[in-house]
Amino acid sequence: MKKLFGLFYKDLFLGNRLFACLAGSVVLFLLGFFFPWMGEIPVLVFWLLMIVIFIDLLMLYRNREGVFARRMAPERLSNSDDNELGIYIENRYPFNISVGIIDEIPFQFQQRDIWFKTVLKPRERKQISYTLRPTRRGEYEFGDIRVFVKSPLGLISRRYNFNQAEVLPVYPSFLQMRKYELMAISNRLTDIGIKKIRRIGHSLEFEQVKNYVAGDDYRTINWKATARRGDLMVNSYTDEKSQHVYCIIDKSRAMKMPFEGLSLLDYAINASLVLSNVALLKEDKAGLITVSEKIGAVVPADSKYTQLNKILEVLYKEKTRYLETNMEALYTTVRRVIKQRSLVVFFTNYESMPALQRQLPFLKRIARFHLLLVVFFENTELKTLSEEPATDVEGIYIKTIAEKFAYDKKLMVKELAAHGIQSILSTPQNLTVNTINRYLEIKARQKI
């Protein structure tokens, strides 16, 4: 009995309307001292209020399970994307209720405003949707759902606690990956900034002989088929397939720098996942290598159906380290793992020319055997500082230093090009689009 009373007291909350009614009752008692003609009116009002409170308690507590709530969440969340979640709520009372809902979301979001208010009719069911945007990979622990119910009287509220504790993993941006996948399948990549590349010549993989249409390359006319059919016929060629595409992700301290809530490593991971998916859709083989002061994960290139899930599981666990990249170990691993000429996309970051010079000898060795594409990041904060007008001596100094760093980034691109190494200097938010553009350009120009 004591336990039941404790639970009753614990889940009982007094409403603002009740406090207003009690304040009004107190005012009536005070007025009764000055106006004797009021007589027993304050006492009658007080006991009437007590009866209404008792009725309100009876309405809320006569049902053991007056409401039901459940969180509607996916099996996993996508990093840096808006993930949709929902709360299913059901009214089991025979009257209208006002409901306040608190969903205890993980502390990583640092949000305390997940509070929803709604009104439910008798036996009505409703689903409330909201979105969460995680900025770190890992496990996110959700807590309980707490529902506060008020009857039409609205004097008190009863709390229901629903044990919905669960842990959801946050994976690299698979929602972004699916978006690009659908665009690639429907040939609508240009809608999101992917450029069409004009082909120069054609690959060696013959596909079919077809009728000539305006715009076809006249150099592909098949004169023998034309003579037999009496109509112009042209040879159709397709992209070369089964080429190897490796993404190498630098996990050193250079990739720890944050941008809009995500680290540069997270941007590189998201771009690698999308690039691997597009490569598999183009019937190439995708692989992955991660490196910091030592070699991390190695996923040999393959085109199997399970390859993308294998890459996704590996990227989910990767974290930045705090030491320099071991380029010697990377070169040894590339020579050991990658047996044929491949496209090697190296995601890293350089903030100064000496940082590039330290790695350049190893990059040149890798470029001797493979088509190397170095992807590094443009510092948008420095770019903003360099474009702002200077108003004093300190401003001139800051602007000059920012322009120097921005100019060094452009020198790095030229330095890499001078040694036959392709590069992409990209802002973090445009990294995925720029990387896919370059991959499609390389395939169209048959450079692998």
Give a brief rundown of this model:
The chain has twelve helices and 21 strands. It is α/β, with parallel strands linked by helices and 448 residues long. It has a six-stranded mixed beta sheet with strand order 18-17-14-19-20-21, sandwiched between helices. Strands 1-10-9-5-6 form a five-stranded antiparallel beta sheet.
Describe this protein's structure.
By secondary structure, this protein is an alpha/beta fold. The protein folds into four domains: 38 residues; 105 residues, Immunoglobulins (Immunoglobulin-like, Sandwich), CATH 2.60.40.10; 229 residues, von Willebrand factor, type A domain (Rossmann fold), CATH 3.40.50; 34 residues, no CATH class. It has twelve helices and 21 strands. A six-stranded mixed sheet has the order 18-17-14-19-20-21, sandwiched between helices. It has a five-stranded antiparallel sheet with strand order 1-10-9-5-6. The protein has a three-stranded antiparallel sheet with strand order 2-4-7, with no helix packed on it. Strand 19, helix 9 and strand 20 form a beta-alpha-beta unit. Helix 8 runs parallel beside helix 9 and helix 10 packs across helix 11. The longest helix has 26 residues. The termini are far apart. The N terminus is likely disordered.
Primary descriptors:
Rossmann fold, disordered N terminus, alpha/beta, Immunoglobulin-like, 27% strand, 12 helices, 21 strands, 448 residues, five-stranded antiparallel beta sheet, six-stranded mixed beta sheet, membrane, transmembrane, DUF58, 4 domains
